[in-house]
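Sample intake sheet
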Amino acid sequence: MSTIDQDQEPAFARGIAGPLGKLTEDLKTKVDEATDKVFRQHCALSGTDASTLLRDFVYLTCYGKTWRAMAAEKLLHEEERIGAMRKLTGPFEGPEFAQRGGHH
């Protein structure tokens, strides 16, 4: 049985879905011990882990938005799209929610 450090995200068999697709690529770097300590303290104070903060930095550098902001925007757009579809088509429900025997 393997253990996972609390500063590491769990390993998944499949990539995590992100706003631009599955997160499948690894980025790694080395830093000195003092910087590592300060960075991990920053993570703890921010209530996040090193992987999430590094991912946010990479996305912020590349796209001008953090990964978490992009993921939240994607969810918001999905909810808006679903709401618009419901206005066009009406609510769609499975048979378990359909009226049975004329009772409401």
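Comment: The first strand starts at residue 16 and ends at 18. Residues 20 and 51 are 17 Å apart (CA to CA).
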